[in-house]
Amino acid sequence: MTTAAEPERVAPHRRPLFILLLAHYLSSFGNAITVITVPLYVLHTTGSSVSTGLAGFANTLPLIFAGAVGGVWIDRVGGKRMSVLSDVVAGVSIGLVPLLDDTVGLPLPVLMGLLFGRSLGSTPTGAARQSLIKPLAERGGIRLASANSWMQGAPRLGLLVGAPLAGLLIAVSGPVTGMYIDSASFLLSALLVAVGVPHSSSPASAAQRGEGFLRQLTEGAKVVRGIPVVGAMTAFVFVTNFLDDAFTPVILPVYSDQVLGSGQYLGWLVAASGCGAVVGTFGYSPASARWLTSNRWTLLGCFLVIGALRLSLTGMPGAVLSIVISFLLGLAAGPLNPALSTVMMEKVPAAVFGRVFALTSAVGMSAAPIGILVAGWSIHGIGLRGTLLCFGATYIVLVLVSLRSRALRDMDTPPAPAEDSSDTDKEMARE
Q: Which range marks the domain in which residue 56 is found?
């Protein structure tokens, strides 16, 4: 017979996971503010669009390599240490921008260096925190799909809340305040993780640290090739990012101008998509327990809906219906990242998770600039309606082809039985 005290004695420890999530939301919120404030700050300070472009280049250049390189360090020193270090570097770098400008001055090369440092620090943080999710969720007795839903909701909610707040801050006090808030969000995030999140795994052994850096970096690629389902998901995401990442910066502005008759509708379309994405991401947590129980069918079903909705835009509907379609597009996209992250955590060994996650993310992001260029050329060559038709039809064809993929069927294969976690729990309790 179970006593009343028994459930309390074995109650799972959920606080570390919630602290990690809080830290992730704080830095995501700060990121969203910086996206708005930095270019306006540089433009206001220098009065030069060239300098603003250089600042954007310096702020995005680390995205090309910092994630993959940071993945190696995640596996070497552990996700917690890497998360704290990355947040400190990012927070100090962005905080020095207005501080130096207000005191000793800030030459353009120093500004570029600080923006580069901020992006260099912030890029690996996502993979570092992702490496902590699975053990903390298991320790807290929380479904992995739910934990990933909450984690993936951070950047979407951060952008939805942070971007308008950044605009308000700029209107009231200028862009400087926003950069101080971004700096504070990173430093507070580092403090929360350092104090409230235990080490979920031991750092790499001396032998592993002694391995060549390039060898460890390429090992992630070998793991991707050795786990067919991970390779298939990476290829799938590469193609869909090629199609999807051109939609907001290229296709929607043209659609808003040519079809709806005014660029002012672009804000409504983007806001509707963002709201839908937030609802879809957080809604995945309860839905994955009852309806979206198959990761494979969630992936294919969501993209099938996205393709159909994109094709519906070829009918050139009015403003209200276009806004509704944008909301539904965001809603359908919401469950994708949590589902894919859940499969990655179940299939990839913890010892190489940082490298594999960072590598697959980098491969996926590399499709974005290619897709943007192709979309621009396509609109110029075959028009907006033809481009919408080609991009939407490609989604449908991709889903139909993927139905025959044996590798993607492994998305629903139960993970191998986990090792006894009692030693890990004891280690975490001692932290």
A: 13-199
Phi then psi dihedrals of residue 416, to 5 deg:
-60, 150
pTM given for the model: 0.79
Q: Tell which residue, 370, 278, 264, has the closest CA to residue 329.
A: 278
Output the tens digit of pLDDT for each of the chain's 431 residues: 444 443 344 345 888 999 999 999 998 888 888 877 888 788 777 777 777 777 777 777 776 677 777 788 888 888 899 999 999 999 999 999 889 988 888 888 888 889 888 888 888 888 889 889 999 998 888 999 999 999 999 888 887 888 788 878 878 887 888 889 989 999 999 999 999 998 765 455 444 554 566 676 677 778 888 889 999 999 999 998 888 878 877 888 889 888 988 767 877 888 899 899 999 999 999 999 888 899 999 999 999 999 999 999 999 998 999 999 999 999 999 999 999 999 999 998 888 888 888 778 778 777 877 888 888 899 989 999 999 999 999 999 999 999 989 999 999 988 765 544 444 444 444 44
Q: Torsion over CA of 67, 118, 24 and 275, rounded to 10 degrees? A: -90
Residues 75 and 221 in one domain: no
For residue 406, being part of any structural domain is answered with yes
CA distance 355 to 362: 10
Same domain flag for 255 and 323:
yes
Across the chain, how many H-helices and E-strands are there? 20, 0
> One-letter amino acid identity for 179?
M
Helix, strand, coil percentages, rounded to 5, for the chain: 85, 0, 15
| Cα maximum dimension of the chain | 75
Does residue 430 lie in a domain region? no
CATH of the domain at 267: 1.20.1250.20
Q: Does the residue 206 lie in any domain?
A: no
Please spell the DSSP secondary structure of 76-95, one letter per residue. Answer: HH-HHHHHHHHHHHHHHHHH
Are 343 and 402 found together in one domain?
yes
Same domain, 298 and 343: yes
Who contacts 54 (Cβ-Cβ below 8 Å, separation ≥6)?
108, 112
**Are 70 and 82 in contact, with CB atoms under 8 Å apart?**
yes
Whether 51 is in a domain gets the answer: yes
